[in-house]
Amino acid sequence: METEKVGLFEAIYTQRAIRSLKPEPIPDDVLAKIVEAGTKAPSGGNSQPWAFVIVKDQKSISKIAEWGKAGFMAMYDRALERLKEGDPLPFPRLKPLVEKLEEVPVFIFPCHVRPEGGSASPGGQSIYPATQNMLLAARGLGIGAVLTNLALGYSDEIKNLLGIPENVDLMATIPMGYPDKERYGPTTRKPVSEVTHWDRWGEMR
Hints:
By secondary structure, the chain is of the alpha+beta class.
């Protein structure tokens, strides 16, 4: 497995959503390493209420892509209805990914595993530190990834397709592949001084 020489803070400061992905497959050992990074995240009481479904099967990917496109286009059409003259088209970065969604080589679904008969609970939030670990691991391994909710409007259909039990909730959809036109690099974010309040709201430094 080839890895980049990327330190922790370099990975954090250069991580970005990669939506332009090559269709070539990702080796299983690389995917396993990414998921392993997810399992190292903290969780409440070390409950580790998570599972990760890696989808590489082309027939399943095609069906998930179909649902992802349908959900996205419904959202896109609603956004178009709210546009005013001169407004840019909605979701300009996500739309190219959706248009080629069936070419994505891997989907990973981070899941929250509830006790049998249990309802959704705040424990499901533990999936997000795990997901961020996975995104950083993908960055370090030179794999492109983006956190989305694509196709989650069809969660029941996806669960049925993939044999996911009733007590397991899909929490996110991560399309993953080798970067194509986009690359990791420095990101543009608000300065810390603009988003940090010291002791009381409004006390900025």
